């Protein structure tokens, strides 16, 4: 939960890395994250998202552990409004409510891999970016 909160509140890799293995992998079947292959890269991406969406925050829906498989899952909704600069266009003033899930695979007490399940196109349309 500490990793999830640090990641989602834009703390970046310097805070998140203590919860992850060196080189921890990241995957997501979304074009917006096609070039991101590590958790280090992803935590930087999430921190950067708070520039165009400065009020961005998460609403946690569920958090669970599968001890047999060493997997922790979280489902949440990211909410915010693009009022800041730094997006693909000037501030649109439009809001996003993006549902997503994280599947965090542990080796020992640290995350080795994480998969994000997210419909990026839906979120980009809400913001007026697509």
Outline of this structure?
With 130 residues, the chain is α+β, with helices and mostly antiparallel strands. The chain has helices spanning 2-8, 13-16, 39-49, 120-127, and strands spanning 20-28, 57-66, 71-81, 95-107, 110-118.
List strands and helices in order, with pairings:
Blueprint: H1 2-8, H2 13-16, E1 20-28, H3 39-49, E2 57-66, E3 71-81, E4 95-107, E5 110-118, H4 120-127
Parallel strand pairs: 1-5
Antiparallel strand pairs: 2-3, 3-4, 4-5
Q: Number of DSSP strands?
A: 5
Based on CA atoms alone, the radius of gyration comes out at 14 Å
Q: Enumerate how many helices there are, as a single number.
A: 4
- Strand order of the biggest β-sheet: 1-5-4-3-2
Largest sheet: 5 strands, mixed
**H-E string:** HHEHEEEEH
User: How much helical structure, as a percent, in the residues?
Assistant: 10-25%
Q: Any low-confidence stretches, pLDDT <50, length ≥5? A: none
Q: What is the averaged pLDDT score?
A: 97
């Amino acid at each position: 939960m500490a990793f999830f909160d640090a990641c989602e509140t834009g703390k970046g890799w310097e805070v998140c890395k203590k919860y992850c293995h060196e080189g921890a992998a990241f995957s997501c079947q979304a074009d917006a994250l096609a070039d991101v292959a590590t958790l280090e890269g992803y935590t930087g991406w999430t921190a950067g998202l708070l520039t165009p969406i400065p009020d961005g925050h998460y609403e946690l829906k569920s958090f669970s552990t599968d001890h047999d498989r060493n997997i922790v899952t979280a489902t949440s909704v990211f909410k915010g409004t693009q009022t800041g600069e730094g997006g693909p266009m000037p501030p649109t003033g439009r809001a996003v409510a993006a549902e997503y899930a994280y599947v965090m695979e542990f080796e020992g007490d640290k995350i080795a891999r994480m998969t994000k399940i997210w419909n990026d196109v839906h979120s980009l349309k809400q913001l007026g970016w697509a």
